[in-house]
Amino acid sequence: MTLATSRVRATTHRLIASRYPPVGVFDDLTQDREELAIAFLLESATNDRLGIISGRLNLLPPEDIVQGPGATLVMGAFLHADPAGGRFTDGRLGAWYAALDVETAIAETLHHSTRRLKLSDGAFPSSIQMRSLVARIDCALIDVRGLRKERPQLYDAQDYAQSQAFGVALRWPKTGEGANGIVYDSVRRPDGINVCVYKPSRVKLPVTQADHYEYRWDARGDVRVLKITNVEQGRSA
After folding, report:
1. Which of 75, 83, 113, 149 has the most CB atoms around its CB within 10 Å?
2. Are 141 and 98 in contact (CB under 8 A)?
3. Which runs of consecutive H residues, i.e. helices, occur in the chain?
């Protein structure tokens, strides 16, 4: 099947856990790639986790590394990757997974957060605070929207083996330049649209930190989503 490409000009919404503030090295530095690597080496002397991040940084071409105000929020999506990967990424390197509306972003993160909690002991009741990141994209993406019947392996609700292989082949082809990313239908919310952007440079700075939310699961595992309108000493109003 020939893959379609669409120019996607849109505002994207990405939700991350508020309790994991990113290290702001990409915001503060304006050095070249070599100096950035040295900065990571110094940081990793007291933080083993940064050694893994430094290895992932080497997988990005220099022109795709973004720096400046808000850049850490973008780079964190690529460097703080889930070792198991995502729908269109393996564990080597993350991507800018985001939705074109915040409701879809909530539905996606609720699903994955609930799944992780169910795998842990004493998961419920529980709560997680999330913050919304908003950023523009304007680039050509591989478009697999509307292909659930033709390519159901890309939309499997649980098994990502084939969709990951599909994405890896696009990101790191044997010849030529890799794709910017993929635009696809949400599996978790009807009519929702998601993007998986493979290149940090395709996410436009600045990134805006928007609303905060709290996901609350009761003892049965039922969940409510609350928008936090005022954050003060851990309380919501």
Report:
1. 75
2. no
3. 25-28, 33-44, 49-57, 71-79, 102-118, 161-171
- Using alpha carbons, select from 76, 82, 61, 62 the residue that is nearest to residue 23: 76
Closest CA to 84 of 112, 120, 111: 112
Chain segment 86-126, per-residue pLDDT in tens: 999 999 999 999 999 999 999 999 999 998 898 887 789 99
| 156 φ/ψ angles, rounded to the nearest 5 degrees | -60, 135
Give CA–CA dist 150/135, Å, rounded. 31
Residues 6+ positions from 167 with CB-CB distance below 8 Å: 87, 88, 89, 90, 182, 196
What are the beta bridge partners of residue 14? Answer: 133
Q: Do 160 and 28 form a contact (C-beta atoms < 8 A)?
A: no
Tokens of 219: 């003892």
Tell me whether strands 193-197 and 231-232 are parallel, antiparallel or unpaired: unpaired
Q: Quick: pLDDT tens for 128-165.
A: 999 999 999 999 999 999 999 999 999 999 999 999 99
The residues, ordered by sequence, that sit 6+ positions from 214 with a Cβ below 8 Å of its Cβ are 127, 128, 129, 130, 225, 226, 228, 236
